[in-house]
Amino acid sequence: MRLATWNVNSVTARLPRLVDWLDQVRPDVVCLQETKVAQFPSAEVERLGYEVAAYGMGGWNGVAVLSRVGLDDVRIGFAGEPGFPDVEARAIGVTCAGARIWSVYVPNGRTPTDEHYTYKLAWLAALRTALAVELGAHTDLVVCGDFNVAPTDADGLRGCDTRDATGAGRAGRPCLARPARCGPHPDEGPEPLYVLGLPRRNVPSGQGDAHRPRLCVRDCGRPR
Hints:
By secondary structure, the protein is α/β, with parallel strands linked by helices. It is 19% helix and 24% strand.
């Protein structure tokens, strides 16, 4: 299965680019974040053979999954998900060709002293608990998205202090047991596969474009 994750930072603004990219690359499943629409523009991608599951709230946040290998068992949000103060459109789960796939947009946290950072850590902890339940029900579990967590110090932008920066902060890392971008997933017991959309590694701050698609090929789900 060819999976992709993409923080589109407004599907309305990037719709022509998204449609062109889908037509050229033809991934099996695409997870989108920061769609920033209440109503996803499904018709444009359905013409290319994709089914759509979307969860949006208007001008902020929003997640979606596009699939051309089937799309079933859609779930909006997850059990125990905290809000700020209300639950936001940050997580959607679907089943595609037998694989359970989540698209998530983790809260940014703003600054480590902000209440939003406490919310971010609570949100990640609740996600971790929910994924443990999902893992018990599904052999193949893939979590794609914008995690606003750099898995290692090397993944941070150059000049970014990972001790204090909310997006790179180490405090969120324990909530992602063995985060990976697209490398081999170690066989060390059952864990979800995390596919993270990250800027280019170790580049000056402001030059790592996080709003680009990341493509990953994984052996999961049923063969097409």
